[in-house]
Amino acid sequence: MSKKSEHSLDLNTPADGQHYNPFKGSSDVQVKTTNKKKKVEETLSNTPYEKITKDFIKTDRSIFDVVMPFIMDKYSPGTVILYLVLYRLGYGFSKNKIIITDEDLSKRTNIPKRTLSKYRDDLIECHLIEYVRGYKATRKPQYKILLPSQSKSFINKLHKTTNKLHKSVKSSESSIIDNNIDIHTTEVENIVRDFYSKIGKTQKYLTRKMLFDGCKTIRSLLNQGYSIADINGCIEYTIEIKSDVYSISYIHYSISDYLVSAADKKKQNEIEEKEKQKRIIRDKETALENMLMNKFEELPQDEQNVLQLKAEELSSNYIEENNMNKKYNFQSHITNGYLLELMREKFTEVVENW
Question: Which domains does the chain have, with CATH numbers?
């Protein structure tokens, strides 16, 4: 006969040591709950902008805009770090030649010595440095740091698309750049804002892109010889005949109908034919610009940076030469126009066959 065994149940949980009865009904169980904390909206700190007036070095902007994206894409971040440290040790002390051992350079960059040689070979291949090997106790390794404009690899990349366009170039008649841009800047922007207000879109709804595209549409019409009065009249006409209009870009098409309807019957046929030709030109130019900007987006990042920098440089020169009022934010429109001109130069054959 087997011995009678006794069984016991431990009512203390090993986790919290709290006494509980597992056979109690759920209605007897007390559960403590905590309120869910409200999500706090993240904001940037109020740290003010601080102008750097000391302990800084001048840096060629092509290093950040062209060289770094190219090396990050083709090689590795370590190659970029090595070049920046060498640049700091050279140009940071107003020289382009330095003498430093692999041990010291490894400590400076936190790159292992066995990897340092690979990154160095990458920079030599890009012709961003020249290197002379050291000999144990007799001579330390020597480096010569080259700027992007001195590099055989980058000099063509920096200038192959930009040297064709002279700094005094003016954009074509169909471009958004024209001598009246400074005069009409505030008026054009107010026209765009008023249009969206009339169709029930609040200023909160009006995005920067909508404002930019609207100003571009109106300026393209001004460049074709339409007056501000013509454009305002066309907007009223468009809203009246097309209640569901949602973009000011529609006046690109409706301005022809507006002018024909406003003319005497004798002149309607003449105006209609003239406006038809203008519309064809506008449609063709818009399609070409869209195609060029799509091609721009398909370019490698370093080539995009080169073109963008050149466009900004030409834009700044244009504003300064024409004494344009800098308090108005129209530089982006001018830069966009020059960027299109640079793309026309880059894809000349495509443009000629368009």
Answer: 61-155 (1.10.10.10), 181-352 (no CATH)
Say how far apart CA 337 and CA 285 lie, in whole Å. 12
CB neighbour list of residue 119: distance below 8 Å, 6 or more residues apart: 75, 76, 78, 79, 81, 82, 111
What are 329-334's contacts with CB under 8 Å, separation 24+?
330/181, 330/182, 330/185, 332/212, 333/176, 333/177, 333/181, 333/212, 333/215, 333/216, 333/219, 334/176, 334/177, 334/181
Q: Specify the pLDDT at position 166.
A: 40
Dihedrals phi, psi of 75, to nearest 5 degrees: -125, -105
Q: Which of 148, 138, 134 is nearest to 102 (CA)?
A: 134
**Per residue in 243-278, pLDDT tens?**
788 888 888 778 888 887 777 655 666 777 777 777
Output the pTM of the full model. 0.45
Q: Picking from 4-18, 35-49, 137-151, 159-173, which range would have the lowest pLDDT averaged per residue?
A: 159-173
Mean pLDDT of 76-92: 92
- Tokens representing residue 304 in the block: 């995009």
127: left (phi over 0), alpha (psi -120 to 50) or beta: left
3-state secondary structure 49-85: CCCCCCCCCCCCHHHHHHHHHHHHHHCCHHHHHHHHH
60-69 average pLDDT score: 86
Position with higher pLDDT, 26 vs 60: 60
pLDDT digits (tens, 9 = 90+) for 148-180: 888 887 776 665 544 444 444 444 444 444 444
Residue 142 token pair? 């020597």
Cβ-count burial 75-99 (b if 16+ within 10 Å, e if not): beebbbbbbbbbbebbbeeeebebe
**Distance separating alpha carbons of residues 220 and 262, to the nearest angstrom:** 21
DSSP β-bridge partners for residue 132: 142
Secondary structure (DSSP) of 167-186: TT----TTSS--TTHHHHHH
Q: In what order do the strands lie in the sheet with 97-99?
A: 97-99, 142-145, 129-132
